[in-house]
Design brief:
This is TIGR02444 family protein. This protein is mainly α. The radius of gyration is 17 Å and the shape is globular.
């Protein structure tokens, strides 16, 4: 399943959309990146080098110069423009997100270490989706919530520990996404 197809299907699963939007709006976590991490996890891909791709300058520029400005403009127009124009802005934002996911898929699949599925190991060694998304956030995000706690000894790049609120949001998303991925697997 392509990253785009997976992202659309997982996003449509009950509870996943609001969990992702909360992570995006309250913590600045990229929805597309979390969907890409989830896609890699569902394919049992090794996270050895994908975190560096997720912060590569070209796709960050697409996010910062195209997707985010369109999203901000769309949100500022809500209720102040015709429904048709609002839906067109939303569709334009979605085109940018789709382009970013297609680019991420191409880059992620081109990485040697992600092309080999992780071997089946004992459950103690299995990387959970929660661990994968937490590792992504720890490696690539800077969070400045006041209520701070160390999660699995993970310290963010700027030296701060992950907040309880962010950890709770990541936990909720991971649980919902795991259930969603199970239902997607059952449907196929």
């Amino acid at each position: 399943m392509s990253l785009w197809s997976f992202a659309c299907a997982l996003y449509a699963e009950p509870g996943v959309e609001p969990a992702l939007l909360q992570l995006q709006d309250e913590h600045g976590v990229s929805v597309n990146h979390l969907l890409a991490v989830s896609w890699l996890h569902a394919q049992r891909r090794s996270p050895a080098d994908w975190s560096t791709i997720l912060v590569e300058e070209r796709q960050l520029a697409l996010n910062e110069k195209v997707i985010l400005p369109i999203r901000d403009f769309r949100r500022s127009c809500k209720g102040g423009v015709s429904d048709l124009l609002y839906q067109q802005l939303k569709a334009l934002e979605l085109v940018g997100e789709q382009a970013q996911l297609r680019w991420l898929e191409t880059r992620l699949l081109s990485q040697r270490s992600t092309n080999e599925p992780m071997p089946h190991t004992g459950t103690a060694e299995k990387v959970t989706l929660y661990q994968a998304v937490t590792d992504y956030v720890v490696a690539n995000a800077s969070v400045s919530d006041a209520d701070v706690v160390v999660v699995d000894s993970a310290i963010l790049a700027d030296g701060e520990a992950m907040s309880e609120k962010l950890d709770a949001s990541l936990t909720e998303f991971a649980c919902l996404a795991e259930r969603g991925m199970e239902s997607l697997t059952d449907a196929n």
